[in-house]
């Protein structure tokens, strides 16, 4: 039997829609803001852990990643009380060079756990007593809340977005590509990781790559995603993926299954990614997993003049498979604007198709994509060229509340909000799975 939002939630969403109508009445877009470079803390020495971020590994483990200038032990000490570290784990250390002009610091990582769900932990890296960090693990059941933001970069708009996110209650952050906008300038990777460390060290960040992560130079640096793979190790092994560029994970005790797909690695029918995706989806039991989400970088549906058609090849290769699996929502970046589509399949509105949302407006240095196609396609419900971030609150097995929060003169304003219904709960779609 289908369940519905509580009266309290319905009142809340009613208020949200009222805010939407007010917020979208008159909006004067602020001016662009300057690029940032975040230097190392002046008080830090060569053994000080920096650029700390965490990633979920399975249901009850966390990978801690950090960098030091000197060679130190790749240890993480952790516990449930500040200053009391009852557990310690030794991890591994690596580094990479990029051309002859850059060598990374020592990149350490260690997987800690098993951990209790929905619990706060304190930790330190490399036995460094001056820096204690804390994080909260996600819940092992519903409800669960994701922040979703793409194309972050490192500008003053980025800091505005991160500030708004820090004021929100959430369990995990999902990023569909284009993280640092280093674009070959490797110190910008260090700057970006310092910028996001306050958030990325306190909640798990699950990311996938965008075009700005490729970073190749013919002959000199022919291997794509070198820095990205070295710095942002995702749990691809846990989902039997052969590549860090595409993987999946489950959340909320298996109630949500999230596909992190690679727009810039082969997705053709004879590719590793295609075969992996087939096998991965075949293991999803929708009676136990009511929510199925996907993240990509280049959107499959886009009514902005920027990047028109760039996701079309991937759509033609994978859309039918995701539709057959009854994916509930697909989130993309790449286009520097916000756009929400209705439930779509094969370029038409389809009750059993996923909602498509472009959220590539985190704060990048390239600015906003302001020009939309006219007239607005019928499948496009809401679109606006503004910086911001999204929030997906999966309330129960049937309903999730999506809201897009616009950066409006340093104030987060809910500008778009709606309920998503799980396709697994739609009886007329079940016979088609």
Question: How would you characterize this protein structure?
Answer:
With 433 residues, this protein is α+β, with helices and mostly antiparallel strands. It has two domains: 40-137, Sandwich (Immunoglobulin-like), CATH 2.60.40.380; 140-429, Metallo-dependent phosphatases (Purple Acid Phosphatase, chain A, domain 2). Helices cover 18% and strands 30% of the residues. The protein has seven helices and 24 strands. The chain has helices at residues 7-23, 156-166, 187-200, 226-231, 272-282, 312-324, 427-430, and strands at 50-57, 61-68, 75-79, 87-90, 92-94, 97-98, 102-103, 106-112, 120-125, 133-136, 144-148, 172-175, 205-207, 247-251, 256-260, 291-295, 329-332, 338-345, 348-349, 355-359, 380-384, 388-394, 399-408, 411-421. The strands form five sheets. Strands 14, 15, 16, 17, 18, 19, 20 and 21 form an eight-stranded mixed sheet that branches. The protein has a six-stranded mixed sheet with strand order 13-12-11-22-23-24. A four-stranded antiparallel sheet has the order 1-2-8-5. A hairpin with a 7-residue loop joins strand 9 (120-125) and strand 10. The longest helix has 17 residues, at 7-23. The model is unreliable at 1-27 (pLDDT under 50).
């Amino acid at each position: 039997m289908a369940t519905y939002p509580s009266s309290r939630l319905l009142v809340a969403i009613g208020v949200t829609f009222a805010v939407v109508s007010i917020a979208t009445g008159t909006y004067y877009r602020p001016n662009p803001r300057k690029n940032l470079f975040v230097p190392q803390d002046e008080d830090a020495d060569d053994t000080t852990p920096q650029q700390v971020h965490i990633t979920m590994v399975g249901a009850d483990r966390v990978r801690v990643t950090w960098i030091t200038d000197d060679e130190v032990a790749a240890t993480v000490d952790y516990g449930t009380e500040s200053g009391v570290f009852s557990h310690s784990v030794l991890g591994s250390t690596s580094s990479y060079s990029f051309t002859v002009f850059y060598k990374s610091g020592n990149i350490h990582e260690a997987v800690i756990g098993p951990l209790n769900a929905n619990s706060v932990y304190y930790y330190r890296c490399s036995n460094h007593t001056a820096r204690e960090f804390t994080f909260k693990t996600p819940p092992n059941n519903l409800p669960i809340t994701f922040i979703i933001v793409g194309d972050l970069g490192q500008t003053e708009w980025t800091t505005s977005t991160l500030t708004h996110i820090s004021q929100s209650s959430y369990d995990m952050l999902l990023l569909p590509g284009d993280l640092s906008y280093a674009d070959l300038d490797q110190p910008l990777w260090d700057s970006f990781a310092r910028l996001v460390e306050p958030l990325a060290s306190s909640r798990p960040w699950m990311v996938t790559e965008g075009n700005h992560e490729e970073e190749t130079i013919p002959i000199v640096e022919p291997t794509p995603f070198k820095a990205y793979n070295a710095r942002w190790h995702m749990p691809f092994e846990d989902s039997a993926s052969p590549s860090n560029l595409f993987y999946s994970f489950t959340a909320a005790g298996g109630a949500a299954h999230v596909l992190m797909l690679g727009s810039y690695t082969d997705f053709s029918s004879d590719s590793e990614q295609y075969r992996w995706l087939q096998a991965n989806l075949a293991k999803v039991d929708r009676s136990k997993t009511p929510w199925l989400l996907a993240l990509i970088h280049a959107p499959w549906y886009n009514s902005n003049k920027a990047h028109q058609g760039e996701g079309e090849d991937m759509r033609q290769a994978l859309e039918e498979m995701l539709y057959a699996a009854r994916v509930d929502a697909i989130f993309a970046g790449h286009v520097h604007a916000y756009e929400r589509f209705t439930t779509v399949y094969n370029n038409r509105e389809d009750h059993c198709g996923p909602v498509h949302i472009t959220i590539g407006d985190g704060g990048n240095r390239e600015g906003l994509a302001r020009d939309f196609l006219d007239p607005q396609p019928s499948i496009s419900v809401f679109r606006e060229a503004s910086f911001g971030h999204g929030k997906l609150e999966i309330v129960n097995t049937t309903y999730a509340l999506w809201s897009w929060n616009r950066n409006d003169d340093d104030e987060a304003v809910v500008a778009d909000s709606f309920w998503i219904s799980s396709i697994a709960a739609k009886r007329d779609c079940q016979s088609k799975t």
